[in-house]
Write a structure and sequence with these properties.
single chain; alpha+beta; Rhinovirus 14, subunit 4; 2 domains; three-stranded mixed beta sheet; 2 helices; 3 strands; 25% strand; elongated; binds zinc ion
């Protein structure tokens, strides 16, 4: 284990939307106003990831690659 990793401990993240989850941080508790559950940016990210997968599918079809 490196020295840097030992600085991080289990900490509870509480979001304004009510959801909470655990993560590794230098702080015991973290309060956030948005999280992956309620932030539209994260939801948009998932949409982007989906469309990217669609692009790969298109690419594969175009080049005759079958999954
Ligand atoms: Zn939230």
């Amino acid at each position: 284990m490196s020295k840097k990793a030992s600085l991080y401990k289990d900490s509870k993240v509480t979001c304004a939307c009510g959801s909470s989850f655990e993560t590794k941080s230098t702080q015991d508790e973290i309060h956030v106003e948005v999280c992956s559950e309620c932030h539209p940016f994260y939801q948009g990210k998932q949409v982007n990831r989906k469309s990217k997968a669609g692009q790969i599918e298109k690419f594969n079809k175009k080049h005759g690659i079958e999954n």
